[in-house]
Please model this.
Amino acid sequence: MDYAEFGKTYTFEEYWELELQSVERHEFVNGKILIVPGVTQKHNFITINLGIALKSALKNRSFHVFTSSVKLEIEPKKDYTYPDVCVAAKEGNNPDDLLITNAILVVEVLSEGTKLYDKVDKFLRYKKLPTLQYYILVDTDTVFVDVYCKQPDGEHWEDNIYTQITDTIHLPLLDIKLDLQDIYQDLLFH
Model:
């Protein structure tokens, strides 16, 4: 059901009520409702691979790994989205809740239609999360992973780009490593 009327502004309560009834997922950004588009098989492979790799790397630690069906609150009653993958501290999350608020790591898997949106607009939104330490962009068409890490001053972000299938990403604040081979498993970029 597409209920997002062009130009209409919705209250959070209207959005929440409609979202609970919808079979599709929708973002909510300052009164505007945006449909979350479908994804390709490549996108799905990468999302699953990342979820598995993060879950394995964080085994027996105080973190949850979520995939694209769990809503992330960026600003209460103003900004909600569905990251492709995110990691949040277990503390402060109730498994019965429909959303999370304390993401530490967010991953967006890029597609041709969302690259610019994910790299610019979404990143500006995600930066508002005080708990966020990592923002990772993963390309579906080539081996390309861009990892942004919040700097100690809390204002600036440093990025590192990985383009070799043999590269390993080190995330020191979580004390984990992710191999690009695992992220791109099932894809023929070798």
Q: What stands out?
A: The chain has four helices and 13 strands. Residues 41-57 form the longest helix (17 residues). The radius of gyration is 16 Å. The CA atoms of residues 74 and 125 lie 7 Å apart.
